[in-house]
Amino acid sequence: MDPYSFPVQLKTASIQSKNVKIYYPQIIHLPNTVVEKRMNITIKNQAESLIKMQNFNPNTPQSEMQGGYEIKTNERAILSLTQSNYAFYDHQAHGMTYLKSLTGNVKTGKFYSLAELFKPGSNYVQRLSDIIRVQIKERHIDLLEPFTSIRPDQDYYVADKSLVIYFELYEITPYYYGFPMFPISVYQIQDIINESGPLGILSAS
Q: Is the pLDDT of residue 61 over 90?
C-alpha cells in the first residue's frame, strides 16, 4: 500500500511570548524526511509572516495576538491548509485578522501557486473571475467597488474537490462581511486544470 494514499500525520507547534499565542501545523512521519523538513519550514515561515503583517507591539496595554490553522484537504498526498492571525490593540474598534493558505504535494514537497493549478496558457484568471462574478450576483454580496478580476496569484485553498478562492478583509467587501469565499467545483473547470497538480489528482477517479 502506498503510504501517501493515507492522510499525512500532523502535530501542532506554537510560537508563544507576551500576549502572543500562535499555533501552526507541522508534518510528521513522512517517508521522505528531506521533503518533510522543507515543507515544515515553509509552513512555519508563513505563520511568522502573518505575525509580521500585524506590526504588533505586545507592550501596548490590553494587546493580544492569536493564530491558528485549519486543514482543508489531507488525502491522495495533497495537503491544503489555512493559517489565520488575529491581533487587537486597546482602543481599537475591532481587531484585524489575516488569512493565508498553502496547498502542496507531500510526495514532492512542492507548494502550488494558483497559476500552477492550471494548464500553461489557459486563461484561468478570466475563467475564475467570470465564475466569481456570477456568484457575487447570485449571493447578493455587498462590494466596496465593482468586481473586475482576481489577481493572478489570488489566495486559495482546496476542499471537497473544490477550489476555494478567497479575499482578505477589506479587499473587496466591507469588514463586517468577513472573508469572502468562492467555492468552484473542479468539474466546472476540469478542461483547464493541470492534471498532475492538486486539482487533477483530487478529481481523478
A: no
